[in-house]
Automatic annotation (TrEMBL):
Keywords: Membrane, Transmembrane, Transmembrane helix. It comes from Vibrio ziniensis. It comes from the Bacteria. The chain crosses the membrane at residues 82-109. This is 3-phosphoshikimate 1-carboxyvinyltransferase.
Length: 134
């Protein structure tokens, strides 16, 4: 379905749910303004990445949605302090995870090259890692 057909359907549904007296009282300029506002709200948006999946888990079904695309809205959406906290927490967890993976990779490279920083001391990660692949 093309984006044009989709937006026409949403706008047609909007006018259908609106009281007919109000619809008739609107000028053409007002109707264009309403249609532009409905389009900019994202109700008719197509996303370049649109993943919608359901996952069964312990007898129940859960869904997740991942959308990504260009923001066509004219106004910037304000975010609450909770959203800022969650985004900060996710970024922090991501940075710490990448750091720990980099340290692990460097440790494994050091161990593979046979470099001992402290004589007679090992975390045992290299032995465990070798055991996985040998």
């Amino acid at each position: 379905m093309s984006s044009k057909n989709w937006s026409d359907r949403v706008i047609k549904q909007f006018y259908h749910t609106l009281d007919s007296d109000i619809t008739e009282s609107l000028s053409d300029e007002q109707k264009r303004g309403i249609e532009d506002a409905v389009k900019s709200m994202g109700l008719v948006a197509r996303h370049s990445i649109d993943i919608r999946e359901t996952v069964p888990w312990f007898g129940k079904r859960f869904y997740f949605v991942f959308l990504c695309g260009r923001d066509h809205r004219k106004q910037v959406r304000e975010r609450s302090k909770l959203v800022h906290f969650i985004i900060t927490l996710l970024v922090l967890v991501g940075v710490v995870s990448i750091f720990l993976l980099a340290v692990l990779a460097l440790y494994l490279i050091k161990s593979a090259l046979g470099i001992d920083i402290f004589k007679g001391f090992s975390f045992g990660i290299w032995d465990w890692f070798k055991g996985l692949f040998i």
